[in-house]
Amino acid sequence: MPDLLPAPRLHPDLTLHHVELTVGSLGRSLDFYREVLGLTVLAAGDGAARLGVGGRTLLALRELPGAAPAPRSSPGLYHFALLVPTRADLGRFVRHAGGLGVRLGQSDHLVSEAFYLQDPDGHGIEVYRDRPRGEWRWVGGEVRMAGDPIDLPGLLLEAGPPAPWTGLPDGTVMGHVHLRVADLGAAEAFYAGTLGFDVVSRWPGALFVSVGGYHHHLGLNTWQSLGGEAAPGGSAHLERVWLHLPDAEALDALAGRLRLRRVSFTEPSHAGGTLEVRDPFGTRLAFTA
C-alpha cells in the first residue's frame, strides 16, 4: 500500500515563540530593551542573553562586537511584533515611549493597532494590540487590512491616568514576524506551497500568511529588498525565527512535506526536538513541538 501523503497545511495551532538577533553591543541592547520595552533579562553570559516577559522568552541576543547596523536592503528581518493583551496596555506603552522621547511610527491595520520603532542596531520592532476577531472583515478568503492613522487621543484615554511604567505586561507574546524577501513568487511557493501556511492578504510588494484564521503570523515583503543580496557577515542580522507546533505529529507532517519536496532541513534529534529549515533567501526557521 502506498504511503499516505503528509497533511497539506500547517497545524492551525502554530504559534510564534521568539527571534534570535545579533547585535553590535550586548550592553547597549540590554539597556534599550529593558528601558524602552521593559523586557526582563532571563539569562545572560558569554556574549549572549535571553529577554522576555513573565518568564517567557521573546528575544535572544548574541553579540558580534562592533557589528555594523542591520542593512535595510537585504532579505531578513523587517520587524518582529510583540502583541500586548489590551488596548489600554498599548496606550500605556505609547505614553511611556513618548516620555522617553522615542520616535514611533504608527498604523491602524483594521485588525490591529500598531506602533513601530527600531533598536540601536536597526532591527525593526512593532508593538501592537489585536482588535477582537469578530471585528475582522474577510473578503474572498483574505482579511481586510489597511494603513490608517490611529485614534491616538482615544488610545491614551483608554490607558487611564498616568502611572509609573513597569514594562510590557504579562501575557505579551510574539504575535508575528515580518520578513524581507527578494522575490514574492518564490516566497509564496515556499511559505504557502511547501511549509503549508495560508495566504491571507496581498498588498503591492507584500504577502501575508498565517494558520488558524489569524490575520498574519508572517509578513513577507520586497519593499526594500527586491532581488537583494544577503546581509554582509559583519552586520547585525536576524539569526533565527522560532515557531511552535502543538505536537510531534504536526512536526512529523511538516518533515514529510519537506522530504516530499526535496527541501533540505535539519531533522529533530529526538521526540520534541527542533526541525530547522532555511527559506529561499537564507532566513532560518526553527520549528519545535
TrEMBL record:
Provide the alphabetized UniProt keywords: Dioxygenase, Metal-binding, Oxidoreductase, Plasmid
Q: Name one GO molecular function term.
A: dioxygenase activity
Work out whether the entry's keyword set contains Amino-acid biosynthesis. Answer: no
Q: Which SUPFAM superfamilies match?
A: Glyoxalase/Bleomycin resistance protein/Dihydroxybiphenyl dioxygenase (SSF54593)
Residue span(s) of domain VOC: 15-130, 173-289
Q: Which domain of life is it from?
A: Bacteria
Q: Which residues form a coiled coil?
A: none
Q: Which Pfam families match?
A: Glyoxalase (PF00903)
Task: Decide whether keyword Calcium is in the record.
Answer: no
Q: What is this protein called?
A: Ring-cleavage extradiol dioxygenase
